[in-house]
Structure formats: C-alpha cells, structure tokens
Amino acid sequence: MSIWTISAQPGVAGDAVAAALAGAAGVALFDRRALAELAARLNIDIPDVDDVEERFCGRGALALSFATGTGAGAAAAYAELKLRRELPELGRRLVAEAARRPCVIQSSAAFAALPDHPGAVHVRIRAPFACRVAKYQHEELVDRQHAEKALRHAERLEHAWVKFLYGVEVDDPAGYGLILDASRLSQDRLVETLLAAGGVRAGSLVTTNEER
C-alpha cells in the first residue's frame, strides 16, 4: 500500500504537487479541506486549522494569564488549554484514519503524526528562500518586501505548529525518507520521483481503477 505524506515549505506549491501526485497514482488526496471533512465524518472535533495555528503559534497566540480569573474568561481559557492538550492525539487519529487506504496526505505535520507506518513515504519539498520569494512575487503580483514578509511569517508558523503538536523540527531530515528541491525539479519530475519512491508506476493505479 502506497502512502505519501507531503510536507512543503511555504512558496513551493506543495498543494499542486500533492494533487498531481494523487492524480497520477490514482489515490485519494487528503489536503486540509479533505482532512477536515474526514474529521467531521468521524466526529473528531478539530477546529479550523488556520485559525488554531494563528491562535496557538502566531503573534496573536493566546495569553493564558486570565486562566485564573472567573466567568467567561476562565471558561474560555479552560477550553483553550483542553484543546491544546488534545490536539496532538486528535491529529494522530485523523492521519491514521486517512492512511487506512492508499493516499497522499498534504500536511506539514503528517510525517510526525505517522512516523512508523511501514507503507508511508515521508517527503519534504523545499527550495532556496530567494527562489520561493521570486515565485511568490510572480504568483501573487506583490513586491519583494511583501513576498519576503509573507513567507517568513508562514515559515515561523509552520515551524511553531509542528513543534507544538509533536515536539519535532519540521526541517529535521531525520523525519523524512525523501527531501526534494523544487527549484531544481519540474512538477512532473517531482511527481515521477515520488511515484518511484512509493513503488508505483505512473498511471498503473489509474488504469486499474478505470477497469473496475
């Protein structure tokens, strides 16, 4: 069974690579939207990930000094603390459920939530910062300063989020079976490499599914 987890640096179009890989392999894609839908079907109560990342890991992270207060403030603080404690295990449950079938899981922390799965290929897609800035400028039509600021914020958030959830560094090579430089490889070549790493020939699973 082939499972890929895709953890991509901000600015390398990891979502496009993950979607292309899932299409080429003929397997399910679990991006943030699909993971949220899976969580809802399983009655796993996980709030909006973008919102939680900012609250727990961004500059607007919750100040818990009011936890000793009373009334609505104390209740809110308790709920937030409870969510902080539960999120890592909820994440593991969700990713493990997704991995019950061949799939591509696009999530910065999936490699850490599923470290010992025998059929999983954990992938980090990265590129030099200057290349990512130029790509962001081109795609978002912004100046260099804006692009640099946006990417640095996204990087800080990604590092803090993975560290918060599982206590590991998102760029630690020990967590991955494959690290690819998107500045040196086209999307097609990235997908070919990922298929080979998962022991899948391009189009083979698609043909099988169509025949069914």
Question: What key phrases describe this protein's structure?
Answer:
Rossmann fold, 5-stranded parallel sheet, alpha/beta, 9 helices, 5 strands, globular, 11% strand
What would you call the shape?
Answer: globular
Q: Which structural class matches the secondary elements?
A: alpha/beta
What name does CATH use for the topology?
A: Rossmann fold
Poorly predicted runs of 5 or more residues: 62-70, 204-212
Tally of discrete structural domains: 1
Q: Quick check: average pLDDT? A: 87
Identify the CATH homologous superfamily: P-loop containing nucleotide triphosphate hydrolases
Strands ordered across the widest β-sheet? 2-3-1-4-5
Radius of gyration: 19 Å
Number of distinct helices:
9
Strand-residue fraction? 5-15%
Architecture per CATH nomenclature, i.e. the level-2 architecture: 3-Layer(aba) Sandwich
Task: Provide an overview of this structure.
- It is a single chain.
- This protein is α/β, with parallel strands linked by helices and 212 residues long.
- It has a single domain, classed as Rossmann fold (3-Layer(aba) Sandwich).
- It is 55% helix and 11% strand.
- It has helices at residues 14-25, 32-41, 49-57, 71-98, 110-113, 129-140, 144-166, 187-197, 204-211; strands at residues 3-8, 28-30, 103-106, 120-126, 178-181.
- The chain has a five-stranded parallel beta sheet.
- Helix 1 (14-25) crosses helix 8 (187-197) and helix 6 (129-140) crosses helix 7.
